[in-house]
Amino acid sequence: MTDARVPGGDEAAFIAAARSNDAAQFALITERYRRDLQVHCYRMLAHYEDAQDMTQETFLRVWNKRESFKGHATLRTWLYRIATNACLDFLEKRNDRTPVPAELPGAGSEVHYLQPYPDRMLPEDPQESVVARETVELAFIVAVQHLPPRQRAVFILRDVLGWPAPKAADVLELTVASVTSALQRARVTMREQLPDRRLDWRSPATHELSEDERGVVKSYIDAHERNDLDKLTALLREDLRFTMLPDPGALVVTAKDAVDGWVSSGLFQRGYDDWRCVATTVNLMPAAVLYRRTPGDQEHRLFNIAVLHIADGKIAELTGFDATGKPWLSLPATLGADTSHS
């Protein structure tokens, strides 16, 4: 694989570290790419913990193959090649990493293995296009899962990272014609999965939440803490799409069905009426972390992460992630009496 270039600083330093078996220098160089590679693996797998594992697997493979790197390609390209193939190998061995038809007729499919991605682990490099907001939002990650693995890799390399066809073909050991064909099929599927979303993934996009989004999250939190079901209901769009992961069969596609389900499960009744909530973001999306205190307990304990897609001042999609008993995303397991909201 070649990028037709003279090796730069990272490439030369990597080659020197490989030749001298300098593990410390090797780790120092490759660690700079961890966040970029981890987001790449997350897009491929839709699962934060799997993405962490495959990033670590990538670094193990890189160390084992270190002497094969000659600097003909950029170090970044070489690392992405290894990471992509690590993910493809992982997917080949798993039969539980594809969307399944929703139990609700006409509701499409569900990705039960979907996990949120912490914003603090996103790349910090402002030149890195992988942090465009739309390309880490849950709807995008779910849509990508509907692509066959190799087609998924082509789409991410070409349309998200903006790689030219020959470079993507080289990484995947395919012909340029095969890459072009796979990309065309992938784009059709993505348009079907995201009919109302922007499809130009490589153009700049804001990372900041809008005032509208911040206001809705604040109201959502206030409704929970005040046990105000009417206020909560008023925040929902009538065609709300709600799901609770990883529970199968929890998907509903109207606000009424969602609220009916919450009421029947005891929301805002004894045991589900003492809430503390914290505003946050995951996947560059607005979210609320819900802490619940049960009768007899002294603390509010991590219960749920509610990720919100907000459109025109209403919650259009609400994806809940069960966080009970999980030390997840560096969130505190409990909130003490003096914990303030962020």
TrEMBL record:
Residue ranges of every copy of the RNA polymerase sigma factor 70 region 4 type domain listed in the record: 140-189
Organism domain of life: Bacteria
Keyword Hydrolase: no
Record has Transferase as a keyword: no
Coiled-coil stretches noted in the UniProt entry, renumbered to this chain: none
Alphabetical list of InterPro entries matching this protein: NTF2-like_dom_sf, RNA_pol_sigma-70-like, RNA_pol_sigma-70_dom, RNA_pol_sigma-G_actinobac, RNA_pol_sigma70_r2, RNA_pol_sigma70_r4_t2, RNA_pol_sigma_r2, RNA_pol_sigma_r3/r4-like
Subunit structure: Interacts transiently with the RNA polymerase catalytic core formed by RpoA, RpoB, RpoC and RpoZ (2 alpha, 1 beta, 1 beta' and 1 omega subunit) to form the RNA polymerase holoenzyme that can initiate transcription.
Protein name, UniProt field: RNA polymerase subunit sigma-70
